[in-house]
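[Backbone geometry]
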Amino acid sequence: MEKLDVLKQGRPLDCDLKVKLYYDILDDLQIAYQRLDLKALSLNEDIKRIDDILETRAIKNLLFRTLSKRNPRYFMIILFSDERFDTHAFRNKYQLPKIEMVLEDELKSLLHTHSGAVSIIELFHDVENQINLYIQEDVLKQTFFRFHPNDEDTLLCIKTKDLRETLIPFLHHTCHIF
């Protein structure tokens, strides 16, 4: 299957309101994106080629919180999916107390999402700016950045320059590079 056969321009015709909101944001900001429908890929061959198709490595989005019940601090951490996140090193570098993964109920209240669907675009729902954004330096060195638009069957790919210069400022978050 050729790259051009699987990459689509624009939004799908059929998506729920929340996913539509994310496409509206990208369109309003005039951020060009390509869409990869994962259902269109054969699991045996093409799924292994996603990095090549999108010209970018897979990432993971982790959401942590400090253990404070009264005043927790939140951290969205984006790094390559094949790399281990060292919570101890992260805590030491930023002088943080112990941290833990945010649980399902808190994900829903903070970002209106669920495990497995967390992505940078969900920071749109963090209107109180509670979540600190940390992105691995090498992720930002790539030409393209990919993320789910709250739909595990779809990947969107945008220029990393658009992520840094347009999307993150629109989301009113500061990008800390680690």
Observations:
- The beta strands are 7-9, 34-37, 59-66, 74-80, 99-101, 131-135, 144-147, 154-159, 175-177.
